[in-house]
Amino acid sequence: MAQQQRITITVPDGSFAAYLATPDAGNANGAAIVVLQEIFGINADLRETCDNFARDGFVAICPDLFWRQEPNVELTDKTEAEWKKAFALYNGFDVDKGMADVGATIQAARQQPGVKAVGTVGYCLGGLLALLSATRTDADASVSYYGVGMDKYLGEASKIAKPLLMHIAEADEFVPPESRAKIVETLKDNRHVEIHTYPGCQHAFARNQGVHYVDAAAKAANARTLKHFLSMK
């Protein structure tokens, strides 16, 4: 059974909380995963995601990446008011500072007992950050679920030197078709990148209890993700 706790990570300009789920000692596989949030903060979906990774033997850490704007944000995708607040936080988010926090969380993960490899997985906003973790950090592997705004950062693609798995929703209402095509075209021949697209799926098709959840697609994507992380070196 996974063990959960709240930890604090310190960076030069402050400190922020992170949700930590750890596996039973007999089930630990020696790897950690940094789970990167959507625009809703560390909510029940992200905690469940961390707990699921811990049950599969991983240490899972989800950092509070909105802490500079408002610590401890916890929203859902169920109300208009929550969406409005989530978009305001997204629009106020500093990607470069956020990536510095991701890097600090990766290093915190490496300090966890028994951890020998660390990967990142991100959803929505976190999907972009997972892509950038493959270009800007020492993560051993990364997974991006329906990342938003990734086409703006494709100039960094040549820096990808570790395995990157990408899940792209073909009916993503937040990523225009031309942007999806540009992402696939730019990355398809990179030997470190594996891309899967999901026909008919909207944004956040793998969000636990999400309004656009698609069971078959989510299970397929999650199985690929698990295989990807189990092969980390």
Automatic annotation (TrEMBL):
Residues 16-229 form the Dienelactone hydrolase domain. This is Carboxymethylenebutenolidase. GO terms for molecular function: hydrolase activity. It comes from Cupriavidus pauculus. InterPro entries: AB_hydrolase_fold, Dienelactn_hydro, Dienelactone_hydrolase-like. Transmembrane segments: none annotated. It holds the Pfam family DLH. PANTHER family: ALPHA_BETA-HYDROLASES SUPERFAMILY PROTEIN, CARBOXYMETHYLENEBUTENOLIDASE-RELATED.
